[in-house]
Amino acid sequence: MQSVCIICLILRAASFGLAFHVASPFSRQAATTTTTNYREGTQLHAEIERESEKKRVVVIGNGMVGQRFMENLISLDTEKKCIISTFCEEPRAAYNRVKLTSYFETRNPSALSMTSEFDVEGRTPWYAKNNVELLLNDKAVALDTKAKTVTGASGKTLAYDVLVFATGSYPFVPPIPGKQRPGVFVYRTIEDLESMLAYVKEHNVQSAAVIGGGLLGLEAAKAVADMKVQSHIVEFAPILMCRQIDQGGHDVLVRKIEDMGLRVHCGARTQAFVGKDGTTDNESTSPVSALRFSNEGWEDLPVQMVVVSAGIKPRDDLAKGTDIAVGERGGILVDEQLRTSVDGVYAIGEIALYNNFIYGLIAPGYDMASVCSKVVAQDELGMNLDLKEEPAFTGADLSTKLKLLGCDVASFGENQPSPDDPDVSSLTWNDPLCGIYRKLIFNKAGTRLRGGILVGDAGWFKFAHMFAHEIIIVDRSSNQITVQEIIADF
Fold it and tell me: How many CB atoms lie within 10 A of CB 252?
């Protein structure tokens, strides 16, 4: 009878998934082990139940903005109400693309890491420490918003409660014949740089063209120059950085760039990437050997490599074909809380189309990550953040201050008002000998600073940006700007 009772007890315990040490029915050790294991089993079941109650947040994209979103959400989630998973199609975790050109200083990816040093697998301790599931080398390829699942290229499918698109963008490559040739690259990732370096060495590249004279194009031109290759900047617009500076700023910037040994070709209409075999079609795989232009009187530009950096396009392919609303020219439509048209799905960074605008700078992306993390924490995870007002992204300041090819370039506010704007006046300082250009744009009365452009010396940026749209007084007799309320510690 006693044996039967013991067997029944063991079977009952087994039904709870407990492990037992079988001993004599009269043994104190048996009773102690039974009690201990039962308690451990109960705790285990309680832990499993707590985990099952947690909501899963899936972040598609482990770039700078996606990483910042996760960091923000983790700092808010003090009660551990969610589990985070992130798809990362690159061979390493998040790194700083803004500083991509500095890669040549060390050739060490860890120097760009957003968290700490990468291990041999491309991971850092941050993910395990924060219980974040990092799916490396796994691009999200399928989305079912009805079943609320995302599937990676590896075949792994994750169910989600909250989905955040942080897929960013990819380089826009114009439909130029010959873009398929060996020697034509884009500038976006560490792998892109490594591929360029290998090609330069293997093909003894002496000269390269960078298609695009915007922010990314000038960064790419620096990368090419750092490879000890003659760099040509080829821009369709009549001036470089046409969204940030004007003709005066362009003139100073070009002088600075060409003094460094680079060459600038603006107003260039690239017709084809010519192959070594002389072809200009879309089929030949002969390596690139020149650029051909449709400009009258322009000769071919001999180059052995081309880097295309002519803008970006939102990576919204995964959203297309679902019920997530996408803009006509790309990007996922979002509201002020970064919500998409589907409940529980959000979009941040260069994939997000807010007010019909894609923000390609990192600062607005970080602002979106901050807002989205708070909205998800409150609305999706039920946290009480005790905020005074609802988090909202209402646009971003597009002011920039950069050092491009060793030259300070900054713009802020309304730096290029419409030509037919009647309420405009300006003060311009142009010093070609020192390579400095400053332009401050005011209202017609000269009482309000509307914006400005600084090239060669951006020392005024903090001051001018601070007082953009504030009431000021301009002393025209001495070309001095006096602010009515002086900040003592400025």
Answer: 24
DSSP state of 249: H
Taking the C-alpha atoms of residue 19 and residue 68, their distance in angstroms, rounded to an integer, is 43
Residue 318: phi and psi, rounded to 5, are -65, -30
Long-range contacts from 137-140, C-beta under 8 angstroms, 24+ separation = 137/88, 137/89, 137/90, 137/91, 138/87, 138/88, 138/89, 139/87, 139/89, 140/60, 140/87, 140/89, 140/167, 140/318
Q: Residue 24: is its pLDDT beyond 60? A: no
Q: Which pLDDT does position 40 carry in this prediction?
A: 53
Q: With pLDDT > 90 as the criterion, what percentage of the chain qualifies? A: 70
pLDDT tens profile 272-291: 999 999 999 999 999 999 99
Tokens, residue 323: 């019920």
- Taking the mean position of all CA atoms in its chain, how far away is CA 450? 29
Task: Give the closest residue to 141 by CA, choosing from 312, 313, 320.
Answer: 320
412 to each of 216, 278, 453, 456, 468, how far by Cα in Å? 18, 46, 7, 15, 8
DSSP three-state, residue 217: helix
Average pLDDT over residues 456-467: 64
Average pLDDT over residues 252-258: 94
DSSP letters spanning 119-174: -TTS--HHHHHTTEEEEET--EEEEETTTTEEEETTS-EEE-SEEEE---EEE---
Amino acid identity of residue 277, one-letter, is D
| Span of 50-54, 148-152, 226-230, 241-245 with lowest mean pLDDT | 50-54
First and final C-alpha spacing in the chain: 90
Separation in Å, CA 56 to CA 245, 297, 352: 45, 61, 22
Residue 34's pLDDT band, with cuts at 50, 70 and 90, is low
pTM metric for this prediction = 0.83
DSSP state of 267: S
